Amino acid sequence: MVRLSRVLLKDAGNVIDKTLSEILVCPLSKQPLRFCEKTKSLVSDTIGVSFPMKGGIPCLVPKDGKILEEESEASKKNIK
Amino acid sequence: MTALLRIVSPVTFTGGNLPDNSRSRRGTVVKCSNERRVLFNRIAPVYDNLNDLLSLGQHRIWKNMAVSWSGAKTGNNVLDLCCGSGDLAFLLSEKVGSTGKVMGLDFSCEQLAVAATRQNLKARSCYKCIEWMEGDALELPFGDCEFDAITMGYGLRNVVDRDRAMKEMYRVLKPGSRVSILDFNKSNQSVTTFMQDWMIDNVVVPVATVYGLSKEYEYLKSSINGYLTGEELETLALEAGFSSARHYEISGGFMGNLVAER
């Protein structure tokens, strides 16, 4: 995992502009976000929630956030 | 009729079932933001065309005025809330130039998709400085004192908690900077209100019906009625912490623009 502020990632349209990455924070905790390369999502470690990116656009509507524990369980079920 | 058409309101999309709280700024918080989000997603493909058609292009003038009032200038970092398909964001980018930055935030992914497509079709380098994001105007994903200017076009009337929205705008604005909020004017003049209602009933709704959006535009009348007057908007801004607030009526009183300074 790398901190969002140091990421300039280009992967299938999920681009995080460096300036943007320095400005965006978690909409709920107002704390910095971390870009997760594995899930291509923006993670708020403070509250344990991840926010998706769709077509390069960060989706930071609070109700669209996924609790990290639930996301992990969902991944395990998919593997099984 | 031509004179009446010249001051036709733009298409401003509203949706959901807002209860009639026309005089109550602190009325029931309506939890229908998801309905509105779905609605704005649905109308995204025709939103720009209807804006042009129903206002005969005048919405561009109003939006230019809103951007001028925001005080945005070269090199600034600015925010357009409820950006929709991006009209105000594009105008802001022309002001701040390629050395500035524009954030366009909206809760409708379809509107943002239209905005991104329009951005890709535009040639000027300043438009590349716009970043789009899906977000909630009541829970902004920005730190404190981030922006040199904020604009909001036809958004404040649609949010479910205007106090909260104003406080968020105040929070993310730099001291001494301004927010410029354009929307329909809820007039105290009965003649203006009558004219607005007449235009909605006899022009806006029939045209919207052609696009299969009659219900959404019928709602516009009650939405304006449930909005705040200019004076109430000024009070809203001052109570959110802004040091000054002034509401300007434009286009014969049909539209209004709130300018508040932190």
UniProtKB/TrEMBL annotation, chain A:
<comment type="similarity">
    <text>Belongs to the PREY family.</text>
</comment>
<dbReference type="Pfam" id="PF03966">
    <property type="entry name" value="Trm112p"/>
</dbReference>
<protein>
    <recommendedName>
        <fullName>Protein preY, mitochondrial</fullName>
    </recommendedName>
</protein>
<dbReference type="InterPro" id="IPR005651">
    <property type="entry name" value="Trm112-like"/>
</dbReference>
UniProtKB/TrEMBL annotation, chain B:
<protein>
    <recommendedName>
        <fullName>2-phytyl-1,4-beta-naphthoquinone methyltransferase, chloroplastic</fullName>
        <ecNumber>2.1.1.329</ecNumber>
    </recommendedName>
</protein>
<dbReference type="InterPro" id="IPR023576">
    <property type="entry name" value="UbiE/COQ5_MeTrFase_CS"/>
</dbReference>
<keyword id="KW-0489">Methyltransferase</keyword>
<dbReference type="InterPro" id="IPR004033">
    <property type="entry name" value="UbiE/COQ5_MeTrFase"/>
</dbReference>
<keyword id="KW-0949">S-adenosyl-L-methionine</keyword>
<keyword id="KW-0808">Transferase</keyword>
<comment type="function">
    <text>Involved in the biosynthesis of phylloquinone (vitamin K1). Methyltransferase required for the conversion of 2-phytyl-1,4-beta-naphthoquinol to phylloquinol.</text>
</comment>
<dbReference type="InterPro" id="IPR029063">
    <property type="entry name" value="SAM-dependent_MTases_sf"/>
</dbReference>
<dbReference type="InterPro" id="IPR032904">
    <property type="entry name" value="MenG"/>
</dbReference>
<keyword id="KW-0150">Chloroplast</keyword>
<keyword id="KW-0934">Plastid</keyword>
<dbReference type="Pfam" id="PF01209">
    <property type="entry name" value="Ubie_methyltran"/>
</dbReference>
<comment type="similarity">
    <text>Belongs to the class I-like SAM-binding methyltransferase superfamily. MenG/UbiE family.</text>
</comment>
